[in-house]
Amino acid sequence: MTGAEQVISALKQHKITTIFGYPGGTIMPVYDRLLDTDIEHILCRHEQGAAIAAIGYARAAGTTGVCMATSGPGATNLITGLADAMLDSIPLVAITGQVASPLIGTDAFQEVDVLGLSLGCTKHSFLVTDPSELADVLEQAFTIASSGRPGPVLVDITKDALLAEVPQQEIMSMEPVKAPEPEHKHLVSARQLIAESQRPMLYIGGGVVLGQATGELRDFIDATQIPSVTTLKALGTVPYCSPYYLGMLGMHGNQAANHAIQQCDLLVVIGARFDDRVTGKLAEFAPNAKVIHLDIDAAEIGKFREVSVPMRGDLRQLLPHLTLNNLQLNEWQQQVAELKQQYAWRYDHPGERIYAPLLLRQLSDRVCDKTIITTDVGQHQMWAAQHMQPAHPQNFISSSGLGTMGYGLPAAIGAKEARPEDPVVLITGDGSFMMNVQEMATLKRRKLPVKILLLDNQRLGMVKQWQELFFEERYSETDLSDNPDFVTMARAFDIPGRTITTKSEVPAAIEDLLTSSGSYLLHVRISEQDNVWPLVPPGAANHKMLEGNS
Amino acid sequence: MNHHTLTIQANHRPETLERLLRITRHRGFKIESLNMEQDQQNGQLCIEVSVCSERPLKSLEGQIAKLWDVIRVEESNSPSIRQSAYA
Ligand SMILES: Cc1ncc(C[n+]2csc(CCOP(=O)(O)OP(=O)(O)O)c2C)c(N)n1
To answer: What is the pTM of this model?
Structure first.
């Protein structure tokens, strides 16, 4: 058995059926062996696309994603994807070829110190020069990627190790790393704080999704009826019909969510990490609240905010321990319900031009519960977060921590490969779409029916909005009014589409988008003047939100 | 500025020290002195590092404990020992 066959065998051992990648010199031994397996390799058209597709796959399926690239430029092109997976804690195994071991450190052709590059953007990484270590390293890689707080792991393998004969090795499955049991005294204190609180709030983050604890969270909310807010990554964890769920908090969150958090006396933080886009001015975030913090990662607990009760562990185990019935919260629930009503999204908008929030709400009402939404980054992303109502968190896939433009299309490809039966809709912007536009070739090759909704304001809208508000309307390099003709461009990839410009066209266009048999591009012209509201200005406390006049 | 000394036990990989240095810098700590030795019996590394920062030491300790090759971290002269995050 060769090293390359060892790689294939490790993938099989981990029941990997689909991988994303791009071939080249040093990884060729693995690509050669791929021909003789039933592992599906999806050729993306840029390694960044492959890495992000693997992330989309992992997020939609709730499993580990795998991507592969060659040494040098192949590996450097993966880096943005690794960083994205790092900040969003996505289980990802990246396999890269490396120049033969005698050539390492000689500035050989396509040699880059990938291990060095990986240090800041992976959970862990390996350089394998000795083929006898391969089986063990790959086993560790899969274990590390998916256990505890998940994350990306890179395995860089020299070409000589891939070509070498290695004795067939029995791969010893590693025990998954066990989460610690909750400490009794902390359970008692946490329950007591919850029981005593007059105005508790749940601040729910992506850890719930990664810890596969959505069911436990929903049971907890059903029993306690504690009001809740979520981060961008946790959208869909709480059903939108829950009476005391206030949506997303933070910089572009719902006002009700931000106000309720500011007023609460107890913050139960569930798999969230006090990100700066969420808290606004940290010193004034939930200023009167005690904090119970539940997380798998000890380093997140107390990182920014003193906690009254630390609860490190598996959320699936922790949440049932904290479930209390018969909490007397009527007065607070009433206040929360009033906030919810007072700040409910409004869709009245004058004129004939298309108003993105309304369009997205119409789309959200029209799609089925299984629909997966992926987004790019910018204003359209925030509008999607505000106005789409995913039925499940695995159905809303958006680059949160890194804010990676170019994410949406490859993530949609990965999601569609993971769940071919479920509809996939990409919500993108004219800036972001161009960043991984080459992946339309992957849609074409795989005949993947991904529905593309392109909100075109002919601007790098989010940056333009900041220039307008915080840089005295000095618009530097945010004008995209010379965009290509997107519909014509899509047609070159066999993707039909159309352009709409007025409100009255929206319902029929959404229908065409969703019911077309294959991929479809709905190109929507919107005004460059529409901004995302509300907005917490940088450095301000979350209750000091700006409201636009649109 | 707060000054602290950490004792770290770790698996000996070629890049273990690099990981430690990177995380220390990136998390806002300056290294004032560093000593590394290999334990002849078990091959593991014993690293003693003195750092200073405005940030609480806890924030660095937690990140070091998460390094896969780190077995334990403890503040010298402190009773609290932080096991590897994976123990
Ligand atoms: C790779 C990358 N480069 C730059 C940015 C900074 N950035 C954030 S939003 C944005 C504009 C996005 O424009 P577009 O995709 O058209 O979306 P819009 O805001 O107009 O909806 C930019 C440049 C980023 N997030 N990612």
So the answer is: 0.97
